[in-house]
Amino acid sequence: MVRLITHNLLACHVKRCTTNNFPLQLKDVQLALREAEFNADFLRGFMPRLEWTALVQAACQVGDDSLPLEAPEMVDDEFLKNLHHVLLEIHIEEGAMVCPNCQHVYPISNGIPNMLLAENEIG
Amino acid sequence: MIPTPDLSHLTRTDYEHVYEPAEDTFLLLDALEEDAQTLRDSKPHICLEIGSGSGCVSSFLGAILGPSNTLYLSTDINPHASRCTFLTGEKNKIPLNPITASLTQPLARRLSNAVDILLFNPPYVPTFEEEAAEAQHGAGLQGSWAGGSDGMRVTDVLLRQVKNLLSPNGRFYLVAVKQNNIPDIQKRMRDDGLQSEVVLQRRAGREHLFVLRFLR
User: Fold this and answer.
1) Which of A22, B121, B158, B199 is the most buried (most CB within 10 A)?
2) Test mutation, A80, A115, A121, A122, chain B, max B CBs within 10 A
3) Record's superkingdom (chain A) (predicted)?
4) Which CATH number applies to A2-121: 3.30.390.60, 1.10.287.3510, 2.20.25.10, 2.40.30.10?
5) Which residues, in sequence order, are CB contacts of A88 under 8 Å at separation 6+?
């Protein structure tokens, strides 16, 4: 399953594509919503690992504008609920992720991203 | 006692494409189980399994740590394996996040010093070099075991990345066999600032299997 928590960790890795290769742009996505167990400690602990702007942008691309543009310094329950939903409950089932720099297309099929490159594309 | 993950949804056809858990898998599970409390206490945020195959090992780690306490990422070069990993996670109620990729390629940039638990049961069987190269290219069942002349063709690539992947409290579990030259692996990793020990070893048929644990 490709959720936004995973999307936030994937970058283009085509040979010589080293700048502006993150975040990958979501394209033609089909979504599914699935409930996940809420865990405030996990969310708090994970926040420093997130690229916030990339997360907000990806959330907007899938139609969720519940997150603030800047990561808040103080987190309350409502914020954590929204973060939980955005990171863990929105599943990208089909579609693609496109590199903003080299335009390489990484397909998503049956909820699994295919990040393999051809031999001549590997850095 | 942590039960072995339920794999009853996988069929003979799946195992024509994806490695079926065997003694090496179970040795890794045993090593994780021995460290279960330490693993929980370390409160990992990101776990990454390379070459997740059936998804048995990541699901087992999920049973140790719980479904919502950590992010379970995995890669496999074999798309069929990614599918099996996903299904095994579902079957065992652990949200696994399989990615079809070679080693850490698409994750390396963002997971710099961020992986708390790294797992790899690599293709460790010594074979002809060409055989191992073709096996990786083919991304099928053979790629799960064919390891080149000293069985280290694929493992060597990952070993060079470990110091950049592990978080300050990170740990790495690696399955190996005697022919992989374990003292040499340990020496090379020590040069990268990683301490290691053999946490388990077992003879299984012709194989003398080891699980190594590396700490920052």
Assistant:
1) B121
2) A115
3) Eukaryota
4) 2.20.25.10
5) A3, A5, A36, B95
Q: Is residue B169 part of a domain?
A: yes
Interface of A with B in 29-48 (CB under 8 A): 36-39, 41-42, 45-46
CATH assignment at residue B99: 3.40.50.150
Could you tell me if residue B7 is inside a domain?
no
A114 reaches B (C-beta below 8 A): yes
Residues of B in contact with A2 (CB under 8 A): 97
Domain containing residue B32: 12-215
Q: Do B69 and A122 touch (CB under 8 A)?
A: no
pLDDT digits (tens, 9 = 90+) for A25-72: 999 999 999 999 999 999 999 999 999 999 999 999 999 999 999 999
Nearest to A49 among B101, B105, B114 (CB): B114
Interface predicted TM-score (ipTM) over 0.85: yes
pLDDT tens digits, B1-44: 899 999 999 999 999 999 999 999 999 999 999 999 999 999 99
Instruction: Specify if B28 maps to a domain.
Output: yes
Collect all residues of chain B within an 8 Å Cβ-Cβ radius of residue A10: 99, 106-107, 110
Ordered by start, the domain boundaries in chain A are 2-121
Q: Count up the domains in chain B and report the number.
A: 1
Q: How do residues B111-148 score in pLDDT, each as one tens digit?
A: 999 999 999 999 999 999 999 999 998 989 999 999 99
The residue behind tokens 């914020």 is: A79
The answer to whether position B24 is within a domain reads: yes
**Count of CA atoms in the C-beta half-sphere (13 A) of A63:** 10
CA B177, chain centre distance (Å): 14
CB contacts of A8 in chain B (<8 Å) are 110
